[in-house]
Amino acid sequence: MANFIFQKTLIIGVGLIGSSIARALREYSISSEIYGVDTSDDVLEKCNNLNILSSGKKDLKDYSCQFDLIIICSPLSTYKKIFSSLSSFVKKPTLVTDVGSTKVSVIKDYQDACNNQDVKFVPSHPIAGIEKSGPEYGFSKLFENRFCILTPINNNDDFIIDVKSFWELIGLEIQIMTAEHHDRVLAMTSHIPQLIAYSIVATASELETHIRDEVIKYSAAGFRDFTRLAGSDPIMWRDIYSMNKNAVLEMLGRFAEDLSTLQKAIRNNDTKFLEKTFSSTREIRRLIEKLGQAGSFDPTESGKNKKN
Amino acid sequence: MANFIFQKTLIIGVGLIGSSIARALREYSISSEIYGVDTSDDVLEKCNNLNILSSGKKDLKDYSCQFDLIIICSPLSTYKKIFSSLSSFVKKPTLVTDVGSTKVSVIKDYQDACNNQDVKFVPSHPIAGIEKSGPEYGFSKLFENRFCILTPINNNDDFIIDVKSFWELIGLEIQIMTAEHHDRVLAMTSHIPQLIAYSIVATASELETHIRDEVIKYSAAGFRDFTRLAGSDPIMWRDIYSMNKNAVLEMLGRFAEDLSTLQKAIRNNDTKFLEKTFSSTREIRRLIEKLGQAGSFDPTESGKNKKN
Question: pTM, whole model, 2 decimals?
Fold first, then answer.
């Protein structure tokens, strides 16, 4: 029989990430029972059909039992309410972590809404995901070979090590940093690329109909790389831009400057500058491939049956 | 014995695309002999080691035979010189086509430099490619299920049908349009996404060292999708922006406006506008997937051994 580390785990928000965690918890025999909370009947029904959870309910209050580990996997705008519910629900020492893409706002929400010493909260961000949303797209290997950033509220909290172990067990490598630093790095590595992807796809969708249809048709020429990101969950991203406004606006300012410089070089036929810039960016790609963080892109349609 | 359609085919520029065409010509028994011209000794040596060509030489003048089909696969800045060489080299009716990413400039170069009636030129653009360059990365299936745009100089030319058949034989579906229209569509579908990818990677590479290293480390969060494009051949892209300057600047203007609108919405906490924009872009992604032009992205590293 397996030696489970947790008896009862609760996942709040059982979409793509939540359901992937649930699958990993089961597959690696980390938790004996896996419960879920989701406000959507549709999501709960899918989880039921896919046999992802021991049981799923619409509200934390619907549970009469306590949990050993609670993972918040819902949009950032729901956190404050969730922390407030946890504050009154939790009656025994309970590890609590989350997967939110911003960390300063999460800590603020926690501090504003939770004053229960039994809630042992370690803010976390597993850097993993795909552009699909919903429990039907989750898979247990999503976290393999990816990083998880922890931004502890007090670096001396002895339960940090337990949260760290949990993430490591499902395949993640842990990095620890401040919430402020996390938000700045993620602005550049995630929030800005995503915003640009949304923006260029929006530009394309506003073109005259006949050109727009052709842009879709010939998207294999490069445009499709942006549309993958732009297929992501709108609510999740709306919340991220609200919660990480300052870092996003700062990085966006830098990007706009660099784009203007390239625009000017094109206008002035400054081919030397263009060639130099285009050569320097190759190096970054090489480093990402070397680090094993590039993923695998198949330019044909032959990989279509795989999870993607 | 196979019935070859062409006896002797010449590929000028045997990099990623040229070598992929050579492989397809051989694999599908389309041409009996496949010759190459490339100014790089390194490329010719690789072709020789990989047994891609019947023979490869550094200059068109090094050939004493004539050809049935010539395909230009070199950077756009070399076209004028190539057309001029072809004008004096070609002594019998010869099909000539190309793979250039802009078409107005190609037609102008042809008209300026070639006045040989035996050169039967049909400007073409197979919309296929990956971010790697060099003959070692080519593969015969690169063109499968992709579109090839032809922009004939005279729609009545009877040899258009022969060039069309050639492209179809290696797996492409043909579309015919004017060179001007091609350049506008490709600006949006290819040249702007590529420029933005270069720009954001350049922004990241100018960050303070410690943040830059982290952006690379956590690139799986979205940034990596842009770096794939930014790994592309700098010379090829430098030439594209010179040759399609006006359409690129027009589309870039539209993109910059849309990005500013999103920036303002973030600054003003206009979450409704953000959610609406992010929802509308999902539809475009769905259409691209439906058309079978999305490629396949594997978020794990497990597909690493495949061509990518």
Answer: 0.83
